[in-house]
Amino acid sequence: MGFILGILVNAAALYVAVQLIEGLDFQGEWYQWLILALIFGVMNAIVKPILKILTLPITVITLGLFLVVLNAIMLYLTGWVAGLFDLTFTVTGFIDAILGGVVIALVGTVLHWALGKMGVD
After folding, report:
1. Angle separating helix axes 3-20 and 94-117, nearest 10 degrees
2. CA distance 121 to 103
3. Residue 23 and residue 98: Cα distance in Å, rounded?
């Protein structure tokens, strides 16, 4: 999937999560969603693989369920980095971060699948 399409999918998934989960909040213009999605994508491409390797024993012991916690951590880190760029993406609680991570993963998966079926890859 192309770089720009990946950012659009991340932006859509983040938007859905912010709309569904009360503990996630973003105040900004439409183009700032794209910046937030870019930050989220970079965090997932660079930081998440490192954290996966470091937490591999915990992930194995929990039969992969710890990956949900890693998704929550990625949301927290995205919020912190977004703050460095004067974007107001906030995650208020750990449960909200976990739910947000699940929503983002589900929406992203469905969009990637739908776009693949349409031949947009």
Report:
1. 140
2. 22
3. 10
For residue 1, is pLDDT > 90?
no
- pLDDT at position 120 over 90: no
pLDDT in tens, 15-26: 999 999 999 999
Domain ranges of the chain: 3-117
Cβ burial of 5 (10 Å; 0-12, 13-18, 19+) is middle
Q: How far apart are CA 12 and CA 66, in angstroms?
A: 25
Q: Are 14 and 26 in contact (CB under 8 A)?
A: yes
**Amino acid symbol at 101:** G
Residue 11: burial class (beta carbons within 10 Å; 0-12, 13-18, 19+): buried
Give me 59's structure tokens. Answer: 């992930």
**d(C-alpha 27, C-alpha 102), whole Å:** 21
